[in-house]
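Please study the protein below:
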Amino acid sequence: MASKTLLLIGLVVCAIAVHHTGEAQFDLVGVHVTLYCTRDGNMGIFGLATPRFQGAEVVLQCGNKVIIANTTTNSYGITYIVTPTAPILPFFPPQKNCKLIVNTKLSKCNANLPSIGGLVSPLGFVGTSLFRNKKVANFAPTGFRYNPSL
């Protein structure tokens, strides 16, 4: 009976190790963000002609308010967050445990937009790539929404 219990414990430990190793197969995590100057930060009715939100602070937050990285959008409203896998590992998979937050007031890019609150978006996995011989797990926002409480 004791040997069956030890075997079961051994199998569970092996399963956890294999699962954990599978998560660590990426060296970096990348998040590509294109932010538009609209109430929800997404592309508007004018498609690609929708103005971009430049100079917006974008925060990658995981778990219970753990800030993994932050950056600012460029003059095209684009930013790319690249971070080592290690800080995100406790929150794997990121698309379930992490989100993007834009704390910059929307009125900064358009005076007709709200001057309180911010934007929040969950992440979606978009694929893998190589960057300087390192394997990158790539994510992107699945859709920002306005949150007046930010």
Summary: The chain is about 15% helix and 40% strand.
